[in-house]
Amino acid sequence: MSVSAQAVKELREKTGAGMMDCQRALVEAGGDMEEAIKILRKKGLAAAAKKAGRVAKDGLVAIAVSPDGKKAGMVELNCETDFVARTEQYQKLVKTLAEQAMNEAVADAAALAARPFVGDPGHTVAEVIAANIATIGENIVLSRALHWEAGEGMKLGSYLHMGGKIGVVVEVSASADEETVKDIAMQVAAAEPRFVDPASVPAEVIREEKEIAKAQAAAAGKPEAVQEKIAEGKLAKFYEQVCLVEQPFELTYPELDQLPGRVEQFTTLSCISNPVGGDLIGNARWTGVPLRSLLQRARLRPGVVDLRFEAVDGYTESIPLEKALHPETLLAWRMN
Fold this sequence. Notes:
Blueprint: H1 5-15, H2 19-28, H3 33-51, E1 58-65, E2 71-79, H4 82-85, H5 88-103, H6 109-114, E3 116-117, E4 120-124, H7 125-136, E5 141-149, E6 154-161, E7 166-173, H8 178-191, H9 203-219, H10 224-242, H11 253-257, E8 263-270, E9 281-290, H12 291-298, E10 306-310, E11 316-320, H13 321-324, E12 330-335
Antiparallel strand pairs: 1-2, 2-5, 3-4, 6-7, 8-9, 9-12, 10-11
Helix pairs in contact: 1-2, 1-3, 2-3, 3-7, 9-10
GO molecular function: translation elongation factor activity
Function: Associates with the EF-Tu.GDP complex and induces the exchange of GDP to GTP. It remains bound to the aminoacyl-tRNA.EF-Tu.GTP complex up to the GTP hydrolysis stage on the ribosome.
Protein name: Elongation factor Ts
């Protein structure tokens, strides 16, 4: 039997299957649109089964946050290549799944896969993924699904890094501004802290770190009285590595270059080793941002007196906090 081009077009729009597949399904179904859809879905499940053993090492993370910041959902949907991950069809699917995880409070990939798909309630999420495997031609795996609800006086914020390769959701005070929320989420993405602060580190982890530090000190021949002090010092360093609020605030050069509040000013600088009447001095037009604006974002600890700078070649210098907060003190990255 022959089928019309309009019927093939309609079936293709409904299923995303190839034109020839749609035509063959309509012929097999005797022109019945619903039956043709079933045939294509069955073939899709078969195709998905054949591809299930293939490694899905690429993909995307998507995050959905409610307008009031009270709930959020995140999913990780893996595929085989970055080419597929960048397609509109794939990105639409992963974003829809993140919204479904948020709205339906689903915090498990298997549970989400078993639910009716929000965009096509007649089929489960797993069936829709199988259909996409058939049309896209790669194995697709729903690896993770997560859901959060903000506590009283709190809100949720998010950040996607590298176009969706890394996703972060943070819970902060409801009064926090968007810049602070983004800074915290970006810090989590970059530094991967394991704990919020030292108080949240489990006692057994602290005990293990101190025992390792003491053993290292003992192996180095340090007296027992000194070993405890060394262990405390290494524990403080450990906190800086694994606790969010103890980690250094970091910005990359591209992030610096995009900071708001950029200014240009002429400043005369003299080398620290310039003798009286020497020529190690010059005037230039510098581009940067007031250092105090970055210090405000970094939330300095109480009691700070001086700021210490360290160059890549090992050179160090310090200036009083009062000077660092002066409106003409810049963090500059361009000259002339």
